[in-house]
Amino acid sequence: MMARATTVRVNISDIVQARFDSQGPHFVSPLGIEMRRVMVVGHVVRSIQSKKEREYASIILDDGTDTVQVKAWDSDLKKLNLVRNVEEGVLVLVIGKIKQSGQQDIYIEPEIIRRLTDPNYITLHILERLRGLIVLSDVPSRGRSLSDIESVESLTTGDAPIVLSATKTSTKTRTSEPISPSVSSNVSEGSNKTRESQVFEFIRQQAARKGDGRGVDGKDIIEFFVAKGFTKTEVNLYIIDLLDAQKIREVSVSKYLPCDL
Asked: Is residue 129 part of a domain?
């Protein structure tokens, strides 16, 4: 079985300006990064659907650096439904493979499309892309973490300065289901990989305790781990990584269950 391609966070301009390398095959960004499977964040500026010869749907994403189409056909109804259910004007996260038809038309074949409600996520995506470039370029980044990145006050990409204002997660008590003490005692600090596993184990144990199949609320996940010293950004990224690895699934908006339940 072929190994799953690594997901690379990119700007849309990285895709549009990429060159195709037939020895792979893969696309290479202007910065020399290999891209097969990518993650982009952008606003949906147009939605297109057609039923002429075969059913087809497309959305056009704009992230401020360029625009790209996300396309699907009726040969894969799951992907087709992903695309045609997206409304114009919303902010979305898309994970998928880069494809090319003809010599010029580069597009994304989607695997995951998720609507985002927090406009600050696009800033997070830009920062994570920059961190990914450092890692992929083998530039030493000893001691750096997501919390370090969140503390950055400003940076410049191209000609546009991006001013960051750190948003702290509120830890006020909300009206929600209590978290089992046994779950709390089984979750402890550790490495980043262990921390992702902790998020997964929390979701698994909470889902088993509830037993109603409705999923674990994302707000409860974030609130629990923020209280243990995680940042909201970390928890959101771990949830996305778990979804991406198909360890958990979203049963309704921000409600998660392990894929084997």
From this structure: no
